[in-house]
C-alpha cells in the first residue's frame, strides 16, 4: 500500500489542502471523497454515526479510525478510547489532532479487550470478502469484555445494480453483490486496489448467528445504510 489515503489526511491536517481523494469501484464510476469530511465534527456526522457515539461506553476501540474524528469526540467526553488503523498517515494525523492512545495496527493483530468496538463509515469494509466475515467476527468477539458490544455500520448496495426500468442486473453466478474492488487516487497517483465489503443487514445477522453473536438493527438511514449492534 502506498498510503495515499494517509498522505491526503496529512496534507489536510498540515494546511496543504488543494484537492480531494477520488474513489471508484468495480461497479461505479469516479466519485469525490472530500477531505474535510474525514475531519468532521459530531454535528456534521450522519445520524447513524451520532447514534453509535451515543451508545459507546466503557473502554472503546475505534477500528479503522482514519483521521480520528470519532475518537476525538469520545475522548472529549472523557471516555477511554484507543484508535487503530493500518495507515501510518492516519495515525500521524490522529496524534497531531490530540488522540492520546493510537497505534498503527491491523485489527487482526489487536489483542486487548474492550467494552465497545466501533467500526464506522462502512465498518464491514475491512472484512474484504464474504468468505472472511466469520474470521473477522470471531476475532472481534474475542476482543470483547463481558457484556461488550460491537457497533458497526454498512449498506445494502443492491440498489447500485438497479436498471432504469427497476430491474436488477446482479449476476447470480458471481460472488456476493456487496464484494467490490475499490480504487483510490490522490493528486494523480493510483493506490493499490483493495477489496471492500458492503454487507446487507440480513447477511450480517446470519453470519453473526454462526459465530454466536446477537445482531440487532439499531437504526436505518435514508439510503439503505444501517447501524447494527452485536453482542
Ligand atoms: C472508510 S475509512 C473510515 C475512517 C474513519 N472511521 C471515519 O469514519 O472517518 C476506513 C479506514 O479503515 C482503515 N482500515 C482498513 N483496513 C483495516 C484493518 N484491517 N485494520 C485497521 N484499519 C483498517 C483504513 O486505513 C481507513 O483509515
TrEMBL record:
Keywords: Methyltransferase, Transferase. The keyword Transferase applies. GO terms for biological process: methylation. GO terms for molecular function: methyltransferase activity. InterPro entries: SAM-dependent_MTases_sf. It holds the Pfam family Methyltransf_23. This is Methyltransferase. It comes from Snuella sedimenti.
Amino acid at each position: 500500500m502506498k498510503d495515499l489515503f494517509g498522505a491526503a489526511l496529512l496534507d489536510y491536517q498540515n494546511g496543504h489542502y488543494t484537492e480531494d481523494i477520488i474513489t471508484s469501484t468495480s461497479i461505479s464510476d469516479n466519485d469525490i471523497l472530500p477531505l474535510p469530511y474525514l475531519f468532521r465534527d459530531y454535528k456534521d456526522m450522519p445520524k447513524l454515526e451520532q447514534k453509535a457515539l451515543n451508545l459507546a461506553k466503557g473502554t472503546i476501540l475505534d477500528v479503522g479510525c482514519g483521521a480520528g474524528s470519532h475518537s476525538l469526540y469520545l475522548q472529549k467526553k472523557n471516555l477511554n478510547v484507543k484508535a487503530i488503523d493500518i495507515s501510518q498517515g492516519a495515525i500521524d494525523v490522529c496524534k497531531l489532532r490530540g488522540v492520546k492512545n493510537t497505534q498503527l495496527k491491523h485489527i487482526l493483530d489487536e489483542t486487548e479487550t474492550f467494552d465497545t468496538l466501533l467500526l464506522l463509515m462502512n465498518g464491514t469494509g475491512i472484512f474484504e470478502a464474504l468468505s472472511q466475515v466469520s474470521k473477522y467476527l470471531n476475532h472481534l468477539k474475542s476482543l470483547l469484555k463481558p457484556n461488550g458490544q460491537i457497533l458497526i455500520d454498512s449498506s445494502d448496495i443492491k440498489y447500485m445494480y438497479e436498471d432504469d426500468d427497476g430491474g436488477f442486473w446482479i449476476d447470480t453466478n458471481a460472488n456476493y453483490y456487496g464484494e467490490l474492488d475499490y480504487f483510490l487516487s490522490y493528486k494523480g497517483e493510483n493506490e493499490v486496489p483493495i477489496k471492500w465489503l458492503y454487507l446487507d443487514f440480513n447477511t450480517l445477522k446470519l453470519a453473526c448467528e454462526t459465530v454466536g453473536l446477537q445482531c440487532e438493527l439499531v437504526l436505518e438511514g435514508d439510503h439503505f445504510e444501517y447501524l447494527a449492534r452485536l453482542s
